[in-house]
Amino acid sequence: MTDSLTAELWRGITDIYDAILAHPFIAGLTDGSLRAGAFAFYVLQDALYLRQYAKALANVASKAPNTAETEMFARHAANIVTVEMSLHDSLLPDLGLDPAALDAAEEAPTTLAYKSYLLAATGGGSYAEGVGTVLPCYWIYGEVGKHLLAKGSPEPRYQKWIDTYGGEEFDAEVRDVIAVTDSLGPGLAGAERERMRRHFRATSRYEWMFWDAGYRQESWPV
Fold first, then answer.
1. Contact assessment for residue 42 and residue 35, using Cβ atoms and an 8 Å cutoff
2. How many of the other CB atoms lie within 10 Å of CB of 130?
3. Which residues are catalytic?
4. Average model confidence (pLDDT) across the chain
5. Does domain 5-216 have CATH number 3.40.50.300?
């Protein structure tokens, strides 16, 4: 491990990442044991989440210090609509769900909490805080995707999801954001660095919670 900012951030979430890999939702993607209903619930909620994640990326883009980083985050926000949402649109019919049902679907508690945190932190915090907030969704998905790609899945619908996040195209986006994050390190003062670290750990926890909510097909208690 180096002393880069991202190495520091990742060291702070190794316990969370290990818990993600051990979660039965993730394990069930490769051994085929994940219930189709749980995966369908997850895909639907993820589609709702990604609409708001795109807005969070737009918030980060608006605070970027140079044109290249503004363009990168704005392009990634657009890619969510064109690439990742198209994945969900193709998966939903395979799972017996009408893509039009998205407009009538209700956000589960974890979906609402995660998206609210993202929008608040990227809207109210500094550029560095925003980058730290959105980075786990890139990085953890990329690492999980590569982990699952090495294992494969007997279920074609799960393999389609694995291929997207374990593929080179997504990995290139992850590497770009990691590079931007590391470029912030030398100029990041102690207090802002600590806020960035807290946001990074919080949204990493939300990643575990999101897969757990899908596995449980979480609903509102009252």
1. no
2. 26
3. 137, 207
4. 93
5. no
